[in-house]
Amino acid sequence: MRKLLWLISAIFFTACVKTLPAVKIAEEPMVQDCEFIATISETTDPGRILDNYRPTDHQDEILQRAANLGATHIVWAYDYRIGSSATAYRCDP
Questions:
Q1: Coil, helix or strand for 39?
Q2: How many degrees, rounded to 5, is the angle at CA 36 between CA 64 and CA 93?
Q3: How far apart are the C-alpha atoms of 59 and 79, rounded to whole Å?
Q4: Distance CA 78, CA 62 (A)
Q5: pLDDT at 76
Q6: Could you give the angle at the alpha carbon of 30 between the alpha carbons of 93 and 54, nearest 5°?
Q7: Smallest Cα–Cα separation from 70: which of 41, 40, 42?
Q8: How many whole angstroms separate alpha carbon 4 and alpha carbon 9?
């Protein structure tokens, strides 16, 4: 019984863990020698009830999209409740 509870809790924990891509957040001077990839933005659905809105939803989406484009760094342009935007860069090590 104890092993079953441990197994269930392990499955639940791994299902709830959300992994974010390894894109670093930077400032403009830090990426001046890097390759520009794209400007990425996300907005909320106007019909969505904002009382249940998680402030990091936009950040997570932008980080994921930047990682999919091969970016290593992003610079936030703005981050508000109704939307977020960032510029994605690829920096060589």
A1: strand
A2: 80
A3: 8
A4: 12
A5: 95
A6: 100
A7: 40
A8: 9
Q: Which amino acid is at 79?
A: D
Written as tens digits, the pLDDT of the chain (93 aa) is 666 666 666 665 555 555 556 899 999 999 999 999 999 998 876 666 655 556 567 788 899 999 999 999 999 999 887 788 999 999 987
Half-sphere exposure of 40 (CA within 13 A, CB side): 25
Alpha carbons 42 and 66: distance in angstroms, whole number: 12
The pLDDT, as a whole number, for residue 80 is 81
Q: Note the Cα 62 to chain centre separation in Å.
A: 5
Alpha-helical (H) ranges within the chain are 2-16, 57-68
